[in-house]
Amino acid sequence: MGISLSCGQAKWARSSLGSRALNSGRLVPVPRGIFITLEGLDGSGKTTQIRRLTAWLARRNIEPVVLRQPGGSATGDRIREILLDSRSTGLTPMTEMALMFADRAQAIAEIIQPALDAGKIVLCDRFTDSTEAYQGGGRELGSEIVLDLHRLICGNVQPDLTLLLLPSLEASLIRARRRNDRDQSATGKDEGRFEAEQDAFYYRVWQKYREIAAREPERVIRIEGDLSIDEVHEQIVESVAERLMTATRGV
Ligand code: TYD
Known about the structure:
By secondary structure, the chain is an alpha/beta fold.
């Protein structure tokens, strides 16, 4: 789908310097923006990479709108608590999926669509691919129901670019579980409902992510293997720069 002006709603005015403008921060955004999502297993390093990418964009005078799912809007943050707290026992897979989409509908209406309409870059930590991977794959609801709900609830809001971080399953799980213990003792907040899942659940999530990437290679860039933070960052900015450049050429 390329930068997919049709699907991804990206439209950036090309300055007289073209691609060099990107490096000098002279790219001038005009409505509509670019929607970039980061995906991966828990513990895949998305949070660090979003921080690095935000700083990289800031050095080019681009201030993205950054959010995470579940959460992001005030209502979404409350939905997040229900979804991630280990005390939410007995949530059915359907309930879980419905809550993920409820959160997403609110984030689209309050944050994502207005930002795209204003010509901004939106960086979202997880989006519908997470629902397909975790509820479709992990909880075994299948892809079709997730994609149907996406069409119904999210309309034509589709990422222009998805960066899928896929370090090894083992490394991700160790990091995620360690992080959750640390966060819980620091904040007293228990967000470990997913981290408590069995390895077989995560294996299904991992497989579904790979399936999504194989189905949509234009949109989904796979960053695989146990790479250093710097190496992952380099691959991310390469893909993002390419998309921004394509967007400038597309106008
Ligand atoms: P979070 O603490 O934000 O994890 P991470 O930093 O790894 O993204 O927790 C989000 C959890 O919610 C994560 O385990 C994945 C899960 N999730 C779903 O199961 N379905 C979804 O649609 C989304 C957005 C997240």
